[in-house]
Amino acid sequence: MAAITHATDEHGHGHEEGLHHQFEDMEQQSETYLVGMWSFLVSEVMFFGAMFLAYTLYRWKYQPDFHAAHEELSVLWGGINTTVLLFSSFTMVMGVHFAQLRKKDWVIRMLGATIVCAFVFLIIKFTQEWPVKFEHHLFPGANFGTEGHLNGANPKAAELFYSLYFAMTGFHALHIIVGILLLGVLAMLWKKENPLVTKDYIPTELIGLYWHFVDLVWIFLFPLFYLIPS
Amino acid sequence: MKGTHHQGAHHIVPWPVYAKTLAALIFLMGLTILASYWVAPSIHLGPINIDGSYINNGVALTIAVLKALLVISFFMGVKQASDLVKLWAMLGFIWFTLMFIILNDYGTRKFEPVPGWSKDDPGSSMHRIIDRGPDNPDPQTMVHGRP
């Protein structure tokens, strides 16, 4: 076990609170945590990136059919969802801000607001957007396109479009659900004043990074699926 | 810094920065929606021929990248983070950009299959589509080595 002796060792717990023994100072510890979280986010970029690549390829090859098929998507609800998520990113970063200031009540309020926004997003998606497509037989499968609503698109290309649409928005919704769970746990930890989150703002910041990433994915999903030029 | 209400030598970003970032993001989102309704004209300037839809796509992607940069720099705190964190954040998105080089595979598919391996094909060193004529017909259309 490497023994690092510091001149300040006789202070005992004289180090900052929340500093773990293997780190020189808080700055190094925080940087390490952030790099670790970004490593995970890079893996998420790869996860969604592959699907974006598939989407780009087929949109390139079937541009007019994708344009026709995308007209079934509601720009209104997509726009509202985008605004809701952007706002939730703001409440999240405010939560981190208050965590830095150790203002527990405000942290919980901001996390709560973020969770509410997340639920609004999911409710809009699962009541206004997806069910309409199921009714119109736009979910890929044996029934695809049997109710029309293809706007003149080649049914095979339209089915591709909807495969990608449901896969990508579905995985994104799954990430939102996981995010809600994480935010819930975080809020509970703050409520109970667990030293894990009160001594060091970084855990809150890490969950914040995850949430901003989810928002980032949607920032790209929205124009790519909802706003296809002719 | 023990006992102070904020930790470390870390500088806390004033909250109006976040509010302004949000305002900019919402503005850009509105811009994206408006831009999608504007049908960009095609550009024909001498040798440059760009179809309008490319411009639309370019505008939409540029705005999306701008929004992403705002989220990454301010909401994710990368702007005031150390260089190591900046590097880590950038790496993922650089990878993402480089991945699209794969599309060159699909863009050059018409050059397949390479006829060079068929000893029956007199035009085996040539591009499959170009330079076709009665002397070197497309081997895909030949039957038993004959056109």
Give structural notes.
- The complex is a heterodimer of chains A (230) and B (147).
- By secondary structure, chain A is mainly alpha-helical.
- Chain A has one domain (48-226): Four Helix Bundle (Hemerythrin (Met), subunit A) (Up-down Bundle).
- Helices cover 73% and strands 0% of the residues of chain A.
- In chain A, helix 5 runs antiparallel to helix 7.
- The radius of gyration of chain A is 22 Å and the shape is elongated.
- The termini of chain A are far apart.
- Chain B is mainly alpha-helical.
- Chain B has a domain at 1-76.
- Helices cover 47% and strands 4% of the residues of chain B.
- In chain B, strand 1 (43-45) and strand 2 form a beta hairpin.
- The interface between A and B is large, with 60 and 56 residues.
The proportion of residues forming helix of chain B, as a percent range, comes to 40-55%
Global mean pLDDT of chain A: 89
Share of helix of chain A, binned:
over 70%
Order of helices and strands of chain B: HEEHHH
| Percentage of residues in strands of chain B | under 5%
CATH class of chain A: Mainly Alpha
Radius of gyration of chain A: 22 Å
Q: Using DSSP, what is the number of strands of chain A?
A: 0
Which CATH architecture of chain A would you pick? Up-down Bundle
Low-confidence stretches of chain A: 1-13
The helix tally of chain A amounts to 7
Largest sheet of chain A: none
